[in-house]
Prior knowledge:
Layout: H1 2-13, H2 26-74, H3 85-94, E1 103-105, E2 114-116, E3 122-128, E4 137-145, H4 147-157, E5 165-168, E6 171-173, H5 180-186, E7 197-203
Amino acid sequence: MSHLLTVLRNRDTGRVRPYPDRGWGTADQGGSGILGILGLVVVVGLIWGLWALFNGGSEATNISDMATKTKGYMGGRTGYNFTSGATMTGNFIQRGFAPGNMRVVGDPDSGTATLWNAWGGQVVLAPVSSGAGMNSGFSITTNKVPMKDCISLAQQFGNGGIFSEVAINSTQHTDGTVTSEEAGKECTKNSGSAGTNTMKFQVNG
């Protein structure tokens, strides 16, 4: 009997006892979590960059479209007969000329609706007086433009082409030309993620 117990004891000692599966270690879980967060940050950054790039290109198209429609349909033999930017912008919207991707606030048919850009800034189309008793020109003012887009728009439109004059914040370029260096100095940095620049594009006659 004692011999049998000795044999059984020896057999039990030679076994490999499995340990329970305790899952990933804390270090593994932490490393995986950090990688996941970093991946998410990269993806969000790429999406934000593409969205900002899209906004800048979209607003440039909108400004150009507004200028073309205003020159083609809003003027008459006696110029642009509007008393203010509010009435001219409202009439522009009322006639269905507002670019489709711009935000219209108010009843479009009322003649008093307002126009807003992708950055949350108001866009105003206004008559410009020639000083000869008539409004021979017009201006398009856009607000809350981010710094990078301000420089880009200044370069795109500040070439003496479509617009006779360009203003960046308080600086007026009466010849309609803006160099990259000038735009870089005149366009102000963002406040957080919000743009701080006001730009005015003017057509004289």
